[in-house]
Design goal:
Length: 220
């Protein structure tokens, strides 16, 4: 069997990684893996304050979690213990919880293994914060999307509104900036572009333009 093709998309919160990963995965006829959803689901299941547990307790709790990926393109479904992960994780609060558990080496080690297990079996578009740097360093195509925090807050605001979860845009901007700051400055697997990633500043680009850049990068 041919080696799975891994395309990585990293970048800060609200930059449009999931939208692009889904579209690219559809175009390539392969699944996409939303690794932020894995951190969110773990944080959601373990609950508020779990980031202060000791390692043994965390390790025991993580041992009960099994992730699975099925489907392709935007129909890719990520399940935790047999149940598809739903929209309950899509709030800024759960995003912050995810960022808190994501600072912990024991959580990152557990999810690294889970992410690599998926990548060993399927071709994938994998999106997150450390796909190109830590999880799939040998991936042949790597992208790092960025945009101003104002633009990202605006996009997240529109996205939440679409999900029927209206939010305050200024508050979102603050929350996103705080989360980015924690993600960029943590000791383990901080958010940063891989040396061989293609950087794309999407601030003034339409989704169509970003997609064209990615597709052209994958299929020159
Ligand atoms: O991408 P999303 O906003 O869903 O990610 C939620 C949080 O999970 C991020 O703020 C980050 O702290 C963490 N994360 C991570 N590494 C990844 C994906 C997400 O640390 N590969």
């Amino acid at each position: 069997m041919a080696e799975p093709l891994i395309v990585t998309i990293d970048g800060p919160a609200g930059v449009g990684k999931s939208t692009m990963a889904k579209r690219l995965a559809r175009e390539l006829g392969i699944p996409y893996l939303d690794t932020g959803a894995m951190f969110r689901a773990v944080a959601w299941k373990l609950g508020e304050g779990s980031w202060e547990w000791d390692e043994a307790r965390l390790e025991a709790a993580l041992g009960a979690f099994t992730f699975a990926l099925s489907g392709t393109g935007e129909d890719s479904v990520l399940s935790l213990n047999g149940t598809p992960i739903g929209n309950e994780i899509r709030t800024e609060q759960v995003g912050m919880w995810a960022s808190n558990v994501a600072t912990l080496p024991v959580v990152r080690a557990f999810l690294k293994q889970a992410q690599r297990d998926v990548g060993a079996r399927f071709s994938l578009v994998a999106e997150g914060r450390d796909m190109g740097t830590v999880i799939f360093p040998a991936a042949p195509r790597k992208f790092f999307l960025d945009a101003s925090v104002e633009e990202r807050a605006r996009r997240r605001f529109l996205q939440l509104r679409e999900l029927g979860k209206p939010a305050d845009e200024a508050e979102l901007r603050e929350q996103i900036a705080r989360r980015d700051d924690q993600d960029r400055n943590r000791a383990v697997a901080p958010l940063r572009p891989a040396d061989d990633a293609r950087l794309v500043d999407t601030t003034r680009l339409t989704p169509e333009q970003v997609f064209e850049i990615l597709l052209h990068g994958v299929r020159p």
